[in-house]
Amino acid sequence: MKKTISYALALFLLVGAYSCKPKKEDPPVDTTVTVKDIDGNVYNVVTIGTQTWLKENLMVTRYRNGDPIPYLLDGTDWWEATYGARCYHTNDSLSNKKIYGSLYNYHAVVDSRNICPVGYHIPTVAEWNTLIAFLGGEAAAGGAMKATTIWNSPNTGATNSSGFTALPGGDRYETLGGFNYLGLRSGFWSNVSVSEKEATSIYIDHDATYAKTYPSLKGNGFSVRCIKD
User: Fold this and answer.
1) What is the pTM (predicted TM-score) of this model?
2) What is the per-residue pLDDT across 12-33, written as a single tens digit (0 to 9) for each?
3) In a domain, 94, yes or no
4) Is residue 1 part of a domain?
5) Distance, first Cα to last Cα, the chain
6) Cis peptide leading into residue 70 (ω within 30°)
């Protein structure tokens, strides 16, 4: 009887030890994923629910075909532009480009030459709303999206639990091309026009936890986050 038990125990331990060994056909998975734009800028990505997003704001200076996206310093030039344009907040490329990326008008984000890296696109309103819903709805999603540093106080409810890492890159108003809200607000474009003059953007603020969609003038300058095709 003792022999039978000993054999059974030995067999059990042998099977258990074998089953714990890693299978040869399952190599370690490399979870480090980056994406390059046409300028060679490298972006980290983050998967949130069923979506994969760039983890940093776009800073590309050219469309996918190599054509330059005009850089407009002057406020009047910005105000009058009916074509794609870009800038850095307060025209300070040294301080603001690396942290916040570029600001683009709506004409740039819907240009058929594309500003997103290959395999990515400007999100639709539906895609933004999918993200917002996954993160708890309009009232809470901003907190889950905001970085926990860089924002001005109070940075209400910021946890960055999603990994989206929204930064307060501010914006540039169509009216006279003035700059606003650096440190206080994230504004992102969708690719959806709502009228001749307006398109849908997404706002996140330093003193609230919401992430909301708003109609904005197409000449405004906002940050861009691309989503995987």
Assistant:
1) 0.85
2) 344 344 344 333 333 333 446 8
3) yes
4) no
5) 65
6) no
